[in-house]
Write a structure and sequence with these properties.
Distance between the termini: 47 Å
Number of helices: 8
Order of helices and strands: HHHHHHHH
Radius of gyration: 22 Å
Structural class: mainly alpha
Helix content: 55-70%
Largest sheet: none
Strand content: under 5%
Length: 182
């Protein structure tokens, strides 16, 4: 027997030592809540982005300063997918409304944790499309925020909404009311 050396994988550091909840102490709690700040940030940001567009009448115009049509025309030749920009330019207002309502739906779904993985996947698709069009030409690439948003969505796509979410509440209800449980 080796004296003074532990052979188990974890030391007492971080273990539940009476002050925790019996499920891993502070480490377990930190792991359960790890995605919550990201979920709140992305949810609030996308709700704000959607509402910002919906309350700006000039945004939905085909031309003019700050309009979706003007933005799309300006980035068409430098985007990775000019075909996607051409599609948006066929109906700038329709595309603008689709983006605004998409951001709003993704934001609310993410913030409340309703169909969390689906909402996060929607956010990832929006961020990917914006990266491939609007911020594709930003040099160096790390100065464009759409790629960072895309990467921020991936943990929520993989991990789901987690704690303090409608999804977790639904899962708990399904577990409690499964047939055969007393």
């Amino acid at each position: 027997m080796a004296h003074g050396m532990r052979t188990d994988p974890h030391s007492g550091y971080g273990r539940d030592s009476g002050g925790g909840n019996g499920r891993g102490g502070w480490r377990g709690t930190a792991q359960r809540y790890a995605l919550l700040p990201l979920r709140i940030f992305l949810g609030v940001t996308f709700i704000y982005a959607g509402l910002d567009k919906l309350t700006d009448a000039g945004f939905f115009q085909a031309s003019g300063a700050g309009s979706i049509g003007e933005q799309m025309s300006n980035i068409r030749d430098v985007s990775a997918l000019p075909e996607l920009v051409d599609l948006a330019l066929k109906s700038p207002a329709g595309f603008g409304y689709a983006i605004a309502f998409g951001e709003l739906a993704v934001g609310v779904g993410t913030l409340l944790g309703v169909l969390g993985r689906l909402a996060a996947a929607g956010g990832a698709v929006i961020s990917l499309s914006l990266w491939l069009t609007v911020s594709w030409a930003v040099k160096p690439y790390y100065l464009g925020n759409d790629l960072a948003y895309l990467m921020a969505w991936l943990p929520l796509v993989l991990g789901g909404a987690g704690v303090w979410s409608v999804d977790a509440w639904w899962a708990g209800r399904r577990h409690r009311f499964r047939p055969g449980r007393g």
